[in-house]
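Sample intake sheet
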Amino acid sequence: MKWIVLVLLSVSLHATAQDAPAWFTESFLDISEDAAEAAKDGKRLMVYFHQDGCPYCRQLVEVNFRDAKIVEKTQRNFIGLAMNIFGDREVTWTDGRRMPEKAFARMLRIQFTPSLVFFDAKGRVAHRINGYLPPEEFLGALDAAIGKAAPPAAAAGDRIDLRRKPGSKPIALMLLSPQCDACDEMERNLASPQVRSQVSKFELVRAPNGSEVITASGARPLSSAYVPALVFLDAYGREVFRTEAYLRPFHLASSLEYVASGAYAREPSFQRFLQARAARMKDRGERVDLWN
């Protein structure tokens, strides 16, 4: 199989959220074949999952993928393909199963757009970036996908006891790091009118990234490749959902409601939940702004 270079006129300096950069490729979407082809060039296959109307996807394409350092590093180390999480093009998985893009996205548990999934030479998932990261953090995440970045260091001496009595509020554990502008921004967003009512449904616990947490099921370190991150735990200390990407107020409030309402147990697709929530808000005459 030969790579088919993507030269569609729709991919221009004014690319929209559903477009990939012009230097991405097209293929027959056979993951084993594509991963092997990438490996022959000393690279990894990188699949970019997007959806129409996604402001974070637009940010990735129009900001990150126009940054010279990011473009150089990505082109040097990866072969990029784009897939729509609600698309119908046929994808062939490593075991020969064929399925539409939307089923493939479900199988890989894509919860945020954009998400980037990196595959090794045999088509196995080697790394993933779940959601949008600003350029500086994105460069670091690419290093992790290449295998150059060290894992987050544990915060020595930090032990957080999260054991609670039955009937207590669910816990939203906010993982932070010192001198973190994005952490300060999240704190401001948590206090904003559209997010504050959802925050009140949780016990919000702040902890350094890499802290050891003690729950009903034992002690373990919790860390995220990106901070600030929100890790949601149920009454037994089990993680039920997490955000580890840059979020604007609408998506921040939505992630809190997704867990507080119990929707995560009924609707496994966070993106479907977002669509339904936006529709309910519009029906009530409320303004829905996905970015501001």
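Comment: The radius of gyration is 20 Å. The domain at 4-146 is CATH 3.40.30.10 (Glutaredoxin).
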